[in-house]
Amino acid sequence: MDKKKLTFTVGIPTYYGGPGLVKTAKSVLASKGVDKFRFIVNIDGNPLDPKIEKQLRDLGVEVVFSKQRGGQVARIKQMISMTKTDIIVLTQDDILFEKDTLKKVVEAFEKNTDITMVSARLLPIPAKILFERIIETGVHLTHRVGDAWKGGDNYLLSSGRLLAFRSEFVKKLDIPEEVINSDAYLYFENNIKGGKFLALRDAVVYNKSPQTLKEHLKQSRKFQYPFEELGHFLKSNLESEYTVPRQVSAIAYLQEFIHKPFYTFAFMLVYLYTRVAGRGMYSNAKRFWDTDVTTKKI
Fold first, then answer.
1. How far apart are CA 173 and CA 182, in angstroms?
2. 114: part of which helix (H) or strand (E)?
3. Which residue of 171, 183, 253, 296 pairs with 160 in a disulfide if CB–CB is 3.0 to 4.6 A?
4. Claim: this prediction has a pTM higher than 0.85
5. Partners of 123 in beta bridges
6. Which of 82, 101, 70, 96 is nearest to 40 (CA)?
7. Do strands 197-207 and 117-124 pair parallel, antiparallel, or not at all (unpaired)?
8. pLDDT of residue 282
9. Coil, helix or strand for 264?
10. Cβ 181 vs Cβ 139: under 8 Å
């Protein structure tokens, strides 16, 4: 007997809503091997350019406006509550999809009924300048560590660039709107509630790396002290689940250094700088932040 064909909704929360959003929408809609799906873009308290809105609606995208800014998590929760399909796929306004990514995500849920949360593989759009290549190395390091640690079942591979959930299950999760590192939070909350996570290596999405140190630092600051934040919201000791074993990190860095010595060394310097420059930022962190500029130019 054939397994049930699952229905799904794609949702994008956005504050910026620039031209890149239309490119993202076209990328999602160009997906192959999937049935027709509902596609929602939720605007977070910022007027959308009428030209952008028209292009989205002409593509068949459902545009929802929220008059007051509530933050990314508020918009995600709103879309979850609106979802009537089996699955909700959450992505962002500066992402490009491989044509078979949605198909592979949906199939993952169809093949294993225990799976409640799926993440796609995030790769950088090919770098054009030196700094992008350095940050690109950091992405590959994260993959090396994430793949080797706990068989790939860890928060490092829970990328908010594409997270998908069984709708019935995600509606049971407690998701505070104030949480900043929602990617890791959702991973741990999914586990706490008895869910099962799967990071797909062959379902790929792309985004542009920051082109300036200032923007990279701004991104880094949002996630400097997620352990503090997660402990506060989840009321749970996650140290054993959160701390990457030193041996795993060391092997990953060595492998990447052998592959790309200059860029790995350069990334280590950037990483150290963000840790020093971003120290103490958690106490001042908030769920609203200035929109990046260079990463939106997809």
1. 12
2. none
3. 183
4. yes
5. 206
6. 82
7. parallel
8. 47
9. helix
10. no
